[in-house]
């Protein structure tokens, strides 16, 4: 299972700043009085509170402010110049072709956005399934990563056990949940920034590999050289 943003491409370069600006505008409008948007301090406080409490700011907005998830996602990920903002390594298609096993894209980004990015990268055909946030519902409730309920549902749908899965991600919270369920985990670090407000994907001082990460790699292109460690106790079809 592969994440998308900051795993397969550099979202921190331009995309995350644009999403953050859109998100701040949206939250300010939601928290405002209908005429005046909320102050940026209130916006930042709400965004962080909901991220820490629910694992995604969106869930807090839905639960406490009646925000429609589809509307939020469309507003925050709507970028007219998206394709010009994408930065990525060459050879991703060849990499995915070389790696054994079935590949599933599992992203907390919306489907329209993630589809555009995949097509621009030229790698959509390498994934047997593309699971975006709109499809991350369990018992009718939105449950994006790092939800254990979500990961269990994905495994049931894919008809695999945890020991047959590897999660490749930049976000440590997601890797921690996957590890707790018995998956192997690979942490991709090259696009992470300490001051990046989206994802909270890494420790604040240095990129130290925690115990729930089996393999730490700078780039997904280094995965083939670490397969022996990832394969330990893992069955890859």
From TrEMBL:
InterPro entries: HAD-like_sf (IPR036412), HAD-SF_hydro_IA (IPR006439), HAD_sf (IPR023214), Pyr-5-nucltdase (IPR010237). It comes from the Bacteria. It holds the Pfam family Hydrolase. NCBIfam families: HAD-SF-IA-v3, Pyr-5-nucltdase. PANTHER family: HALOACID DEHALOGENASE-LIKE HYDROLASE. This is Pyrimidine 5'-nucleotidase. It comes from Pseudoduganella dura.
